[in-house]
Design brief:
mainly alpha; 5 helices; elongated
Amino acid sequence: MSAAPGRHDAVARWLHWSMALLILAMLFIGVAMVASITLRPTLLALHRPIGIALLVLAVVRLLHRLRRRTPELPRDLPRWQRAAAHASHVALYALMLAMPLVGWAMVSAAGNPVVLWGDVHLPAIAPHDPAVYSVLRAAHAWLARALLAVILLHLAAALHHAWVRRDGVFASMAGGRVHRPG
């Protein structure tokens, strides 16, 4: 197997940053949907297709990640930080897949179609059942909170690598010049 690259490839960077923007938008849209009765229909019309787009991108990203080596973490990174980095990436991928699937199932359980655009609807993936809808709605909200928490930890770690350690980890995804001391 070849040596690990010094930076993530262009596809990985594009998937990372485009998904980051969409996920951030989805978190704001989700909060606004809950807070506004008048904007709710318009926001739902945005939220559902963006959620499905994120599901597709998450699958593509996972497949890409499984086929490509990623840059190695700095050798002097403590073991607990390596473990935390691995755990946070597993959590991010799990949440990026679970959130849209639970949302899709929730909409299905409510008896509503997931409208992508016009007359293009996705099939139901859960039975029409108010009790199932209630459980899935709560799960979707808790998963959103968990995703936000993991994103904030991910961001904190990225900034730590960029501003404190200055070890090239952030630059490997940001697209800048990677310089690893030592």
